[in-house]
Amino acid sequence: MWSVGSKRTGLIGVKRGMSFIYNELNQKVPVTLIEIEKNRVNQLKKPSSTNEHHFVQLQSRNQLKEFPVTENGIIPINTELNVSHFIPGQFVDIQGTSNGKGFAGVMKRWNFKGLRASHGTSISHRSQGSTGQNQDPGRVFPGKKMAGRMGGETTTVQNLKVIRIDTINNLLLVKGAIPGRDNNLVYIKDAVKKMLIDTKNKARKFGYTAQQALPYGVDDLPMPTISQEMAKSLPAVLQAPAKPQKD
């Protein structure tokens, strides 16, 4: 049973594209499809003098990824994890590599305003302007926002809702877009803000139990993960209930 403050391991997935589904209220929901290929626990690491967390190292394809967990989130080595590790209705953070966009100017890359359209400005409308300041310091500081290669960076999108899981095809459907192109690897874990911080605040301020503090439609989270026997007994498709709208 999940408790407030518990950290579970994440999963390694593959982005398969975007689509849309309809929920119980006949609302159109944009979703990203993530395939959870075979995830196996490869190694466990104990806390050190520089880190208080345990670490679970997962392997999928030839990729290794470590996730920090609390002591009750430790999973035995060689355990296989699947899409049933996540529950429809919960929120997740997804990390991936953003699309590379090539060399970009400051207006596209950093949202600079640019220079004036007229009044003496000539062929410099989209430039960044002066960067070196006055004679003192008379140089460009390191880290200055300038034109350069855009994209291709590690990016995390937070608080995406899990709309549906497909236990037959090992598909995870989350609401909204995630970084990267199709067939890119992504890392999925419980949302830090909406699953950890929010539940702690609800328990501290209002005296909620762990189950009461979870998001709408989520009764519990499998801790440290769902067993293989229970995963086999699940239906083919599980979908998050649509939250009724207030009149």
TrEMBL record:
NCBIfam families reported for this sequence: L3_bact (TIGR03625)
Lineage: Eukaryota, Fungi, Dikarya, Basidiomycota, Wallemiomycotina
Coiled coil region boundaries: none
Family membership noted in the UniProt record: Belongs to the universal ribosomal protein uL3 family.
GO molecular function term, any single one: structural constituent of ribosome
Protein name: Large ribosomal subunit protein uL3m
Transmembrane segment boundaries: none
One GO cellular component term: mitochondrial large ribosomal subunit
Compositional bias of kind Polar residues: 119-136
Subcellular location: Mitochondrion
InterPro entries hit by this protein: Ribosomal_uL3, Ribosomal_uL3_bac/org-type, Ribosomal_uL3_CS, Transl_B-barrel_sf
One GO process term, biological-process aspect: translation
Keywords annotated in UniProt: Mitochondrion, Ribonucleoprotein, Ribosomal protein, Transit peptide
Gene3D superfamilies assigned: Translation factors
Residue span of region Disordered: 118-139
